[in-house]
């Protein structure tokens, strides 16, 4: 194993980053596999880790294909991920090994607790991770979205559904958060990950919270830059307006009928309107009118 005192490509990093890298290298070495089984290397922009292929293949379909398929990586025993920085690799390796990472600890208490529960079913060395913060960061929504993107990109199948649900849970419970609109923008842009599965749920949440969003200038910017979102909102507004105008017209008509024929004529007209649009069984109160 490479000397953890001089991790490749990380010399220019700060002391905290170097310490975190060394700590993770040590934890990998302490895993329930012999050190000589560190037979595969994962590298990114500015760091690399020697890992156990048996571990990463069992927990990621992406690495299973890379290591066992007919690719250069299967013979070179190395894969380079040029777009992944040190923080991303730290999170990725920590997830694959079932380690508690500083990233997960910095999310929010509910997410952190769920991660620990999920990892209970995976054999791992239970060592506290240095650098974890006591309080979640303000951009929790984007961090959860980043976590989902990582899980999805590397096909970490056992964590995918949970990661998706955590994003949706955060969005549903934080419509007034400063980063709520940022999450909407990220989902529709799909620049940091594939978020197509979120579009329908996010749009439904936008409609539910439109009274809050219309007070946010950034929301209008998101609508302006995304034609799909703008078109759906316009379609919804037009549809809603038709319903409102229809209800107002009906109310006006019933008022006129009441002045002409009294309440009985109003009742019969309303009953006829409802029978046209709905099954009478859905309105049991109209089936039998008390005298």
UniProtKB/TrEMBL annotation:
Q: By its UniProt entry, which PROSITE patterns does this protein fall under?
A: BTB
User: Any idea where the BTB domain is?
Assistant: 38-105
Q: Which InterPro entries match?
A: BTB/POZ_dom, SKP1/BTB/POZ_sf
Q: Which Pfam families match?
A: BTB
Fetch the PANTHER family from UniProt: BTB DOMAIN-CONTAINING PROTEIN-RELATED (PTHR47843)
UniProt protein name = BTB domain-containing protein
């Amino acid at each position: 194993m490479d000397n953890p005192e001089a991790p490749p490509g990380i010399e220019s990093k700060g002391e905290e980053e170097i310490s975190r890298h060394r700590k993770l290298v040590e934890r990998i070495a302490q895993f329930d596999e012999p050190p000589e089984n560190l037979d595969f290397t994962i590298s990114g922009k500015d760091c690399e880790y020697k890992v156990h292929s048996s571990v990463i293949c069992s927990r990621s379909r992406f690495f299973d294909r890379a290591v066992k398929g007919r690719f250069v990586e299967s013979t070179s025993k190395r894969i380079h991920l040029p777009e992944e920085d040190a923080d991303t690799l730290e999170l990725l390796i920590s997830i694959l090994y079932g380690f508690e990472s500083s990233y997960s600890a910095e999310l929010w208490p509910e997410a952190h607790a769920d991660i620990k529960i999920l990892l209970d079913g995976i054999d791992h060395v239970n060592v506290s991770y240095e650098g974890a913060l006591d309080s979640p960061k303000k951009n929790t929504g984007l961090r959860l979205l980043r976590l989902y993107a990582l899980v999805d990109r590397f096909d970490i199948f056992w964590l995918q559904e949970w990661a998706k649900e955590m994003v949706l849970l955060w969005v549903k419970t934080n419509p007034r958060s400063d980063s709520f609109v940022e999450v909407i923008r990220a989902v529709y842009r799909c620049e940091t990950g594939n978020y197509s599965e979120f579009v329908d749920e996010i749009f439904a949440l936008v409609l539910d919270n439109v009274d809050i969003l219309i007070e946010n200038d950034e929301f209008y910017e998101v609508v302006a830059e995304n034609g799909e979102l703008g078109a759906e909102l316009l379609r919804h507004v037009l549809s809603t307006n038709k319903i409102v105008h229809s209800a107002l017209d009906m109310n006006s008509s019933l008022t006129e009928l009441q002045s002409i024929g009294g309440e009985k004529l109003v009742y019969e007209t309303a009953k006829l309107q409802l029978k046209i649009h709905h099954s009478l069984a859905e309105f049991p109160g109209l089936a039998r009118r008390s005298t």
